[in-house]
Amino acid sequence: MKLPPSKPIELLSGNDTSGFQVEQVSLASIAEEFGTPCYVYSQSAIEAAWREFTTHLAPLSPMICFAVKANPNLAILNLLAGLGSGFDIVSGGELARVIAAGGSPNKVVFSGVGKSVAEIEFALHSSVFCFNVESEAELDRIHSVAHRLGVKAPVSLRVNPDVDAHTHPYIATGLKESKFGVAWENALELYEHASKMSHLTIKGVDCHIGSQITDLSPFGEALDRLLNLVERLTATGIHISHIDVGGGIGIQYQDEISPQMADYAKILIDRLRGRKEQLVLEPGRRIVGNAGLLLTRVEYTKTAGNKRFALVDAAMNDLMRPALYEAWHEVVAVKKEGNEQRFDIAGPVCESGDILARDRMLEVHEGSLLAILSAGAYGSSMSSNYNTRPRPAEVLIDGAKSSLIRSRETLSSLWEDEIIPK
Ligand code: LLP
Predict the structure, then answer these.
(1) How far is the C-alpha of 99 from the C-alpha of 108, rounded, in Å?
(2) Which end of the chain is more exposed for a tag (fewer CB within 10 A), N or C?
(3) Which regions of 137-246 does DSSP assign to beta strands (E)?
(4) Mind giving me the DSSP string for 305-318?
(5) Among 211, 244, 378, which residue has the most ligand 1 atoms within 8 Å of its CB, making it the best to mutate?
(6) CB burial class (10 A; 0-12, 13-18, 19+) of residue 204?
């Protein structure tokens, strides 16, 4: 089955009367074996998305650091590490995951605005590739930890290029008043400050302007600003060895035009071909977003006024994106069973916001299986136990083989760390 990674529906094969499958495994059999709700990922879709980057960007030999936050499952990190991926992390926890999954710390970039002393120590002990530093105070802290440990910390500054990524305000990060990065105007001064610190090595420049970006022009604008900074750094005698352009390239959820990787690559190649600095990228969503779905079963149908609800066994705690960003995820009935009617797909959580999808024409009844598509990125990773709901099982499909890559949480594990005082 061919798997362009940018169209949600193409994750599925089969049809709506015989029932959909991922690779060669039917969703009905996955529900039978592993229960619902359940995250299902296609290995070949992840590999195809990975290859999109490596193929189109081959002229630049980039270091691709998968953004762990998009999907931190060990099996997925392990798969990507095997393909040669580095990792973009934002916590000591993510670094520990990368190591547990067999990834190399020396291909890790450590981003994030609030790195603690313990996290910095851990990253230095692990010899990460680079810290993406987000403030002057952090620069000073990294320096003092490195000084105490008697090592040199590799650093880049995450520069805020002040470009508008035209994306959801919660996931736009490159604007002047964002909490992320250091202001464009202060970057040079801060680099000069860093260059005088004995226990830092200046490695690169970094930016990340936001996520789910479907208009490619902000990437070009941001990179032009980075290159302008690199020129000014060189003029002051500060030489850098890599340029990290962050992540953010969008995927198709609904009818947005998902950017072509060739066009994205062209923006980078036009500006970077022939330069000596290594290109670093931090994609997350584009690699796993359309390679995963959330499989759920209809518990009840119900009408309320003019509304018809399909109440399913997945909820906002399992997939938070619709409630948090009003994100649209395509929903398909795994098998055609009856007449199409308009439904809101709602979860059992006690919040009016627990609606996974609104106004969908679907053929469902009690017991039907639904697949919520494009759930491979920021799905499981943002899940919680709200309403004391165990997090779903996760299954990775490779051809005809299905592997459980995360067991459904057990109830008792949900309170095993809680203590009733004596
Ligand atoms: N690098 C940094 C520093 C980041 O903060 C992020 C994502 C990435 C890379 C990866 O971005 P991507 O290629 O996946 O767009 N929870 C939101 C998305 C938050 C993104 C946070 N940062 C959502 O569900 O849409």
Answers:
(1) 10
(2) C
(3) 153-160, 182-183, 200-206, 242-244
(4) TTEEEEEES--TTT
(5) 211
(6) buried
Is 88 near ligand 1, meaning CB less than 6 Å away? yes
Distance 109 CA to ligand 1 centre (A): 14
Q: Which atom of ligand 1 is nearest to the CA of 168?
A: 25
Residue type, 10: E
* 3-state class (DSSP) for residue 88: strand
Flag whether pLDDT at 170 surpasses 70: no
Percent pLDDT > 90 in the chain is: 89
Task: Give the pLDDT band (50/70/90) at residue 4.
Answer: very low
Q: Where are the alpha helices (DSSP H) in 337-414?
A: 411-414
**Active site annotation includes 350:** yes
Residue type at 133? V
Rounded to an integer, what distance in angstroms lies between the CA atom of residue 277 and that of residue 189? 21
Domains, the chain: 11-42+289-415 (2.40.37.10), 111-283 (3.20.20.10)
Q: What is the pLDDT of residues 355-411, one digit of tens each?
A: 999 999 999 999 999 999 999 999 999 999 999 999 999 999 999 999 999 999 999
Find tokens 């072509």 and name the residue.
260
DSSP state of 268: H
Residue 155 has which token pair?
């650093």
For residue 386, count other CB atoms closer than 10 A to its CB. 15
pLDDT value of residue 166: 74
Encoded tokens for 397 = 């499909």
CA of 112 to the centre of ligand 1 (A): 11
Instruction: Supply 414's token pair.
Output: 């949900």
- From CA 284, how far away is CA 88, in angstroms rounded? 9
Structure tokens at 145: 């930890």
The answer to whether 298 touches 368, Cβ cutoff 8 Å, is yes
Residue-level pLDDT at 173 = 66
pLDDT tens-digit readout, 67-98 = 999 999 999 999 999 999 999 999 999 999 99
Mean pLDDT for the stretch of residues 328-355 = 95
Q: How many whole angstroms separate alpha carbon 212 and alpha carbon 215?
A: 9
Distance 247 CA to ligand 1 centre (A): 7
Residue nearest to atom 24 of ligand 1 (CA): 378
Mean pLDDT of 149-155: 98
